[in-house]
Amino acid sequence: MVKALVTGGAGFIGSNLVISLVEKGYQLTVVDDLSMGVKANLATVADQVEFHEHDVCDHEFMHSILDEDFDYIYYLAAIASVADSVERPYETHQVNQESVVDTLEYLRVKGYQPKKFLFTSSAAVYGNYPELPKREDSRVQPLTPYAVDKYASERFTIDYGDLYGLSTVAIRFFNVFGPRQNPNSPYSGVLSIVTNCLLKDQQFTLYGDGSQTRDFIYVKDIVNALIFISEATNSYGVYNIGYGKKHALLDVIRMFEEAAGKKLKIQFAEARNGDIQESLADITRLKELGFKANWGLENGLREYWEYADGKSKW
Ligand code: NAD
Ligand code: UD1
Q1: Fold for the domain defined by 3-176+216-242+282-294
Q2: Kind of pairing, strands 203-207 and 265-269?
Q3: Of 35, 184, 191, 286, which sits 20 to 30 A from 201 (CA to CA)?
Q4: In angstroms, rounded to a whole number, what is the distance separating the alpha carbons of residues 303 and 314?
């Protein structure tokens, strides 16, 4: 049986990935400290997953897990909020960089050779340089501790491939949305907060004037891309994943209101420190590998709303 480890597997993207991998018949191990993820995200596959509620920064513990010698390692555990990293730079660094390097080093020292070690990086590494769209070889400008750690960890991931022969890839997600994204922190992904406000008829705070753009991508396309890239024998280096389309935040909110049939109450506040103004992916590399997204923004928003509103099972 194919054995896979997903760190951060009780989180938003991780749990969607774990469920798809279980459906493929993989044997799954998940490590998540539940700081942001919730066990309920894995309820439908609970008896098919070996779940460890544990901190990935505990090196000894992680070494004992890695001794299971996995076919695939998907490294998603992270403190995923840019704003949180600005508040807690050192703590987030331990998770977002140190734990990744320690895992790579342990694989090297022990001579483990997973078919793929996949690290989830971020579009945040590109920063605010004006060139758009962002290609994998565009200039980077990591403006926050989160972006610095993601960039360093992806470089370690690629270098451990080049220097020591590990099969590694690093994926730069643009902005992912969809079911199971936890809305309960001020640092949660924006569309999960919008969803919560629409459901509870609460006021939404928009930081900035809403003209900031993002390349939003539905989680189902992300999961398909992660599996596709990890299984492609010729995948290597860094891949952007987005739709290759940018939308102003306010326009996406309007599209979401349309899907929900509800109006959002918005109050405007000052832009967040370190926030990125323009974001757009060049996805040529991903397309050249043979991947094609199926869902798209509007279908994704519609399906997300139906899930959130309880009209569809997930
Ligand atoms: P998430 O917060 O839902 O998932 C991260 C998971 O890691 C959570 O379940 C959390 O509990 C867990 N975690 C955090 N610290 C941990 C620790 N010390 N030990 C063990 N587990 C820990 O966020 P997500 O959106 O699912 O993000 C998954 C990955 O994708 C992250 O690496 C994130 O940086 C990256 N990413 C996400 C987006 C996005 O738009 N959501 C974009 C770019 C990159
Ligand atoms: C997001 C991800 C980050 C990822 C990056 C890649 C989360 C929490 N963050 O960061 O992991 O690496 O994409 O592009 O998943 N906003 C509001 N009101 C709110 C919350 C947010 O106006 O209540 C605004 C923000 O100021 C920002 C935009 O919405 O301009 C998007 O914010 P957010 O969802 O946190 O995403 P990013 O910061 O782009």
Answers
A1: Rossmann fold (3.40.50)
A2: parallel
A3: 35
A4: 10
Nearest CA to ligand 1 atom 39: 176
Share of the chain above pLDDT 70, in %: 99
The structure tokens 């991780």 sit at: 14
Confidence of residue 190 (pLDDT cuts 50, 70, 90): very high
- From the CA of 30, which ligand is nearest? 1
The residues with which 218 forms a beta bridge, in sequence order, are 177
**In angstroms, what is the C-alpha Rg of the chain?**
19
Which amino acid type is present at position 246?
K
8-state DSSP, 48:
G
d(CA 140, CA 229): 23
Protein residue whose Cα sits closest to atom 1 of ligand 2: 175
Copy the structure tokens of residue 274.
């370190």
Rounded Cα distance, 217 and 221, in Å: 7
* CA 106 to each of CA 19, 127, 166, 204, 235: distance values in angstroms, whole numbers, following the listed order: 27, 31, 12, 44, 23
For the chain, the structural domain boundaries read 3-176+216-242+282-294, 178-214+246-280+298-308
CB atoms within 10 A of CB 136: 18
Which two structure tokens, joined as six digits, stand for 126?
């590109």
Q: Which atom of ligand 2 is nearest to the CA of 214?
A: 39
Compute the distance between CA of residue 222 and CA of residue 210 in angstroms, rounded to an integer.
25
Q: CB neighbours of 47 closer than 8 A, spacing ≥ 6?
A: none
Whole-model pTM?
0.96
CA angle 122, 127, 133 (to 5 degrees): 80
Residue 310 has a pLDDT of 87
Would you identify the CATH topology of the domain 178-214+246-280+298-308? UDP-galactose 4-epimerase; domain 1 (3.90.25)
At 314 the pLDDT is 66
Query: In the structure encoding, which two tokens stand for residue 108, read together?
Result: 């090297």
CA dihedral 297, 22, 92, 104 (to 10 degrees): -120
